Amino acid sequence: MTPGFRGRGSPINPQNRFEAVRIVADPDIDPGYAEPGEEAPSPRTVFLKDLTETILSRNQSPDLGFGYSMNAYRGCEHGCAYCYARPTHEYLGLSAGIDFETRIFVKEQAPRLLRQELSKASWKPQVVMMSGVTDCYQPAERRFRLTRACLEVFAEFRNPVGIVTKNFLVTRDLDVLSRMAADGVVSVMLSVTSLDPELSRRLEPRASSPARRLEAVRLLNEAGIPAYVNVAPVIPGLNDHEIPRIVQAAAEAGAWDAGMSLVRFPYGVREVFLEWLHAHYPEKANGVISRIREYRDGELSDPRWNTRHTGEGPHAEALAELFRVSCLRAGLPRRTSALSTDRFRRPGGTQLELL
Prior knowledge:
Strand content: 5-15%
Strand order of the largest sheet: 4-5-8-9-10-11-12
Number of helices: 11
Helix content: 25-40%
Distance between the termini: 64 Å
Shape: globular
């Protein structure tokens, strides 16, 4: 039996690095307790109100192509074992492990807060990235519909938006996305980590299957919405051999272009991923760890801007070349789309406000 929590990504709930108190399961009273090496029942997802009064976060990383991002949810039920956002839950007194997947903070006031921000005279129209941290189309969105409500606000203001997701649920909003695409203010990127449904199920247990993600690309493209695929994250020794096939599948689904990024392990992500790797692929674990170190100068992680997404050295160069050639053979890019701020408006205002 696979150890960990049934239907979840993280097999552990590690100690919060900021907290001195540690909670340890009691096998006599905890129904979710499992002996080491056994599978425990999946904890239920709990939704908590997030009372934050701000919604747009300024990005100061020079290796990201956007200045602001917004997230209607903290935590992500997709449960991707490698997720770089896991450590953000530690700032809430929780863990980067199973807490990140099962304690989802919901910003119910996100649409109102977004409208306030875009209405300010100080706001300069620019691209806002949805899913800058957690996936805006994670399962919680089916219930709360905050992403759709925020898209309606962006559409009203005609402020450009970039979306990154792993969920077919994005196709629910083809109507509003099509209107935004007509104004040149939206693009959508589907992350495709693997075409192997078994690997995907283990690595990203509550995200859409690879086939569904590619189907979303096709539907977005047919609706006139710029759709892209991101081969991410590339995990050397686990899915790097799939790059040519993923790129080809993306092109066949109608993707305008493709991107790629290397796996990285900030803070608590390392412990979660290594536990996952040894639990699910013990025969590959040492080889995968060794391969990752080849891209990081002997380390498992490199926080430096401009190299954290790509790695460095001959192996990184070979990977980049493999991706470049794969795109060339697949005929990508076939089109490019620069999001526009030219049609931004404040409802009730005039274009003179932009001058």
